[in-house]
Amino acid sequence: MESKIWLSSPHMSGKEQSYVNNAFETNWIAPMGPHVSGFENDIKNYLQHDSHVAALSSGTAAIHLGLILLNVCHGDEVICQSKTFSASANPIVYLGATPVFVDSESDSWNMCPEQLEIAIKDRIQKGKKPKAIIPVHLYGMPYNADAIHGIAKAYDIPVLEDSAEALGSSYHAKKCGTFGDIATLSFNGNKIITTSGGGALVSKRADIKEKAIFLATQAREKAVEYLHESIGYNYRMSNVLAGIGRGQMEVLDDRVAARRQNYEHYKAAFKDIEELTFVDEPNGYYSNRWLTCVLTPSEGIREGIRTALDGSNIESRPLWKPMHQQPIFKDAPKYVNGVSDTLFQNGLCLPSGSNLTENELNRVTSAIKTYFRV
Ligand SMILES: *Cc1c(COP(=O)(O)O)cnc(C)c1O
Predict the structure, then answer these.
(1) Which domains does the chain have, with CATH numbers?
(2) β strands within 158-226, DSSP E
(3) What is the pTM of this model?
């Protein structure tokens, strides 16, 4: 059997090791230390914006704290993009609030502005104005920020921008992770860069960053005795892992270039297979192409390709199953138009790691070509 080809595996550059060694040499083996603030600064400089960054233990933790800082409480409603990974929606439930799912548009596969406005109006009419909106830059493709933020502003609802998959993407030359009242990033093992596990909360307000760090370190008040006036969490990033992140930030642009190259490779390889289509970037959108997704004509063909790849020891995955189809969220209100259902039925994520070799990419494309007998 040939070696396994993964969907998206970690890609170390070698630079990470020296930061990690430094953490050991200086004994900063703790959820604080110079790499943590160094990593936060690296991200801030990369986003090139008046951003304030708090490094945390995961993207999910960042969303959880972000919702707390937007004052989401028990009994509130929060609008969330339905087509996403469950981590976008779970923290809403941690807080005893209710997710309200909104479907996608076909251009970006992200939150549909029309459905969003229908949802807001209907929730207000039913008696509850949503406390926050969570749009997602899925697979690295930016959401329609002008339209989504225009609507959010018109109804005066804050936005938590889930940029977990979109570090390195931009929308009209502005980096993803700088649009929301609060934005969140993930450095999980499968993301475009990784700290093995980790995340960050980004805000234009310095006081939001400070509050995030306060809550992430058990909400200890400034007193020598352990004094607590609010409930805290243990969500800070460790200095060792921040060291990995510092090394990864040095190569982030290379990682984006490699993933975009994968997309071009697949698109060129399948240009004569009319059953397979791709979604190009709308004007002004720049995707990091975290995962390359291909659309097929039917669920049967999608499964045929997936099984054929699996037979060649190649991992591929259907697109995220929409949250409104998940058993756990079956009772949540939803505003759907069929777009995310169709994408889920017909779409397949192909191996997309920045460390894929030419030979591995060719193994993937030839297995698919064999399936189509071309
Ligand atoms: C990965 C991911 C998250 C969660 O990040 P973790 O670091 O794994 O907790 C949230 N939202 C989306 C869209 C993601 O892909």
Answers:
(1) 16-249 (3.40.640.10), 252-372 (3.90.1150.10)
(2) 160-162, 170-171, 174-175, 182-186, 199-203
(3) 0.97
